[in-house]
Design brief:
- This protein is an alpha+beta fold.
- Helix content is 50%, strand content 13%.
- It contains eleven helices and eight strands.
- The protein has a five-stranded mixed β-sheet with strand order 3-5-6-8-7, covered by helices on one side. Strands 1-2-4 form a three-stranded antiparallel β-sheet.
- The chain is globular.
Length: 363
């Protein structure tokens, strides 16, 4: 679909569905519903998604059409808007899901929608870069620019919710799930294992970028497990470790001293599971701490282009790693805090809520 104003009929339908109230789903409900999936429960889930996804997707399409400072007119934003409108039309044109055959076809379609939206984050980041360039850079930002940050927080949180709903339904079709895994939810996830794998992935990127990488030391109980969504935790640890590795590598690149390791500590608390990621990469100036959770600043000189760009494959890009990671933590009621000691290093505290107990609807 070309990046032109959508046809009147489609625009009216998007507006109508975007005005409807979305239905929240609690994690406990997801776990109970998916514990022993049957043809009937999968059919009921597909029927729910057939009605729910158009509402959530239409809202995002409408949001993208009404952004301030000319952001809605940027080519990258128009491309993302078109993806959402196309996905809305795909679901709305799909017949009512009445039997297993239709349910399987519907599942395949929403799986393709999830793939279509893979590059939404870098695409929007490119649009923000285009807007910043037109506005003359960060020093020339007009009053009210914080509206963009607030919009992106809402938009990305909603995106996490949409991908969680689709991903959970698709994963429940796995004919041979791992023991203790309910869709995307691993009821016995080892944070030590996830931290090791995410750190290895981050070190591989660092090696590719610089030719070497600091070590990563991980401390905690290797036998400790708790319910969580493994891909979410992997993304958060990967982004945080990647930032730490980059800071340490660049600080010690021309030094005769051996680069100190990045340290990860996993703590099992009464309320939260906390993961601390510490580095000796020189820290962040106090004046810069307020910016690290925004989407309008980046330490990268030349952010990567959208073409061929996938999330999380570069050492430094649009500066979205930290704010997106905080949203992933907050999606399940956790949080992310960054404490810096300029001249020494940075500590990131990832607070994770234990899943399965909450009946609060997810965003």
């Amino acid at each position: 679909m070309a990046s032109e104003p959508v046809a009147r009929a489609v625009a009216e339908e998007v507006a109508r569905w975007g005005a409807m109230r979305q239905t929240g789903v609690s994690l406990r409900h997801m776990m109970e519903f998916g514990e022993r999936p049957t043809e009937r429960t999968l059919l009921l889930a597909a029927q729910f998604l057939h009605k729910e996804l158009p509402i959530r997707i239409a809202r995002r399409a409408l949001d993208l059409d009404s952004l301030p400072f000319g952001l809605s007119t940027k080519p990258a934003i128009l491309k993302v808007r078109d993806w959402y409108v196309e996905s809305f039309r795909d679901i709305r044109s799909f017949p009512e899901v009445r039997n297993q055959e239709a349910e399987l076809a519907f599942t395949q379609m929403i799986k393709m929608i999830r793939v279509r939206h893979t590059n939404v984050v870098p695409a929007i980041a490119l649009g923000v870069q285009q807007m910043k360039k037109d506005l003359g850079g960060p020093k020339a930002f007009p009053p009210g620019i914080h509206e963009i940050h607030q919009f992106l927080d809402r938009f990305y949180m909603s995106r996490i919710g949409i991908r969680m709903l689709i991903g959970q339904h698709v994963a429940l079709h796995d004919p041979d799930p791992e023991p203790g895994v309910i869709g995307l939810i691993n009821t016995k996830m080892s944070p030590m294992t996830v931290a090791r794998i995410a750190s290895e992935d981050a070190r591989a990127i660092c090696m590719r970028e610089y030719g070497s990488s600091p070590d990563v030391d991980i401390y905690g109980d290797p036998g400790f497990t708790f319910p969580y969504v493994t891909p979410h935790l992997h993304l958060m640890i990967f982004e945080l470790v990647k930032n730490s590795l980059r800071a340490v590598q660049e600080r010690y690149m021309d030094s005769d001293k051996l680069a100190p390791p990045v340290r990860i500590i996993v703590a099992d608390g009464a309320e939260d599971v906390t993961i601390k990621i510490s580095d000796e990469g020189g820290g962040i100036p106090r004046s810069g701490l307020s910016r690290i959770f925004t989407y309008l600043y980046s330490t990268a000189e030349n952010p990567p282009d959208l073409d061929g760009h996938n999330e999380g494959v570069t050492m430094a890009g649009y500066g979205y790693g930290i704010p997106i990671s905080r949203l992933y933590a907050r999606y399940f009621g956790g949080d992310l805090q960054i404490i810096s000691m300029e001249g020494y290093g940075t500590d990131a505290y990832l607070h994770l809520s234990r899943l399965g107990d909450s009946e609060e609807p997810l965003p």
